[in-house]
Design goal:
The chain is of the alpha+beta class and 373 residues long. It has helices spanning 23-26, 39-47, 59-67, 82-85, 88-94, 115-126, 148-157, 173-180, 227-233, 292-298; strands spanning 72-78, 98-104, 137-139, 162-166, 186-187, 198-201, 208-211, 240-244, 251-254, 258-262, 273-278, 284-287, 318-325, 330-333, 337-343, 346-353, 359-361. The chain has 3 domains: 1-53, no CATH class; 59-211, P-loop containing nucleotide triphosphate hydrolases (Rossmann fold), CATH 3.40.50; 223-361, no CATH class. The chain has 10 helices and 17 strands. Strands 3-2-1-4-7-6-5 form a 7-stranded mixed β-sheet, sandwiched between helices. It is globular and about 70 Å long.
């Protein structure tokens, strides 16, 4: 018996593993298998509650084993966390396919960002990695149902019959598929794999989409937290921003896991000016260096968040890095947001968890002329 929601095989033995359903509930679905839901999907559907279940560590090998079945791949990416969801491991798997980049959550950017410039920014960001047509980069908002009809039309015009849908966790893949497809879900199994695949058909077409579980990259700040905290960190409205003009030696926190100290003035011997962009439930806080230890000891959960609870169990190894960001460039923090330098260069000493790769990039949001923010 397979779950009607996620496509995984239902099991009654281990509540910590995928597909769990209590045995007395399982028995009720015998003879009514097409409506069976695992406990995770049931709670998600009826209560909006996500259960913290990790995907099998062998996920990529399982994904490789079915990729040969598909010429076309839809890769869903979160524009608010582009660097955290444009994952190099996924890239290496799908770069030789007929690839469509589905750039979700564009509604969360400031309305002043032109979509033409946004598409050009994405194309410039990926063109050295992918041989992709600009028309295969689709800007959408699954939440607002923006760009969905145009995406369907593009797939039809390209005579796509079936496609595999991939993406990291929390990119809005499920919302996209719910907008594109009929409510009725069927499952499809592939030999040699336990990967849960859900097959859906785009409304009004014969195009079949095969949905895969969201991939946990372990390369984002969000990945240090349980799934409940991750859900709180997902932006729900236009991304927050705040302008800073700190003195040398001041320390700026973004959440409790990332902080940096200002090392010098700019090339014009002035204070640096920068903006921090992040989802609404991620804190920004500027402080003196001598207050750092007190904040880390006594103010995680109120001044510094996430986490949102005091005494949250975090065992993280941190490292120090010196970074210089030129004026008008950005420093992306996967899973948190980005720093946009408006007067620089910004020379900083960063404290961050090991294995988190920060990315210096061209600006996603270009400052208006004559306006530093």
């Amino acid at each position: 018996m397979k779950c009607h929601g996620c496509g995984i095989d239902i099991q009654t033995n281990n509540p910590e593993k995928l597909g769990f359903l209590p045995e007395h509930i399982f028995e009720k679905f015998i003879g009514n298998e097409e409506n069976a839901l695992c406990q995770r999907c049931f709670k998600l559907q009826h209560y909006g509650e996500l259960l913290p279940i990790s995907i099998n560590k062998d996920f990529f090998n399982q994904l490789k084993s079915i990729l040969h079945e598909f010429e076309t791949v839809l890769w869903v990416i979160d524009i608010i966390d582009f660097e955290g969801t444009y994952d190099k491991d996924i890239l290496n798997l799908v770069k030789d396919k007929n690839l469509f980049l589905i750039i979700n959550k564009v509604d969360l950017l400031p309305k002043t960002v032109p979509f033409v410039e946004l598409k050009n920014w994405v194309f410039d960001r990926v063109k050295n990695d992918l041989n992709i047509k600009k028309d295969n980069i689709r800007l959408i908002s699954a939440k607002k149902n923006f760009g969905i009809n145009r995406l369907t039309k593009i797939l039809n015009e390209n005579n796509i019959k079936k496609a595999l849908v991939v993406g990291t966790t929390n990119v809005g893949k499920s919302s996209l598929l719910n907008n594109l497809t009929n409510v009725k879900i069927t499952t499809s199994s592939f030999p040699g794999t336990t990967l849960g695949i859900v097959k859906r058909k785009i409304i009004g077409t014969d195009i079949e989409l095969y949905d895969t579980p969201g991939i946990e990259t372990k390369k984002r700040f969000t990945d240090f937290f349980d799934i409940y905290t991750q859900v709180e960190m997902i932006p729900k409205k236009t991304i927050s921003r705040k302008t800073f003009k700190p003195d040398i030696g001041k320390v700026v926190f973004v959440s409790s896991l990332f902080r940096f100290k200002i090392l010098s003035l700019t090339k014009d011997n002035l204070k640096p000016i920068f903006l921090i962009f992040a989802p609404e439930n991620i804190s920004f806080h500027q402080t003196k260096e001598e207050r750092v230890e007190d904040l880390l000891k006594n103010h995680i959960g109120d001044v510094l968040y996430p986490p949102y609870e005091k005494n949250y169990p975090l065992e993280i190894e941190f490292e120090k890095e010196i970074i210089s960001i030129d004026e008008n460039d950005e420093l992306a923090m996967p899973g948190l947001g980005w720093i946009s330098v408006r007067r620089g260069p910004l020379n900083i000493e960063v404290i961050k968890p090991k294995n988190i790769e920060l990315v210096i990039r061209k600006p996603l949001i270009t400052p208006k002329r004559g306006n530093i923010y």
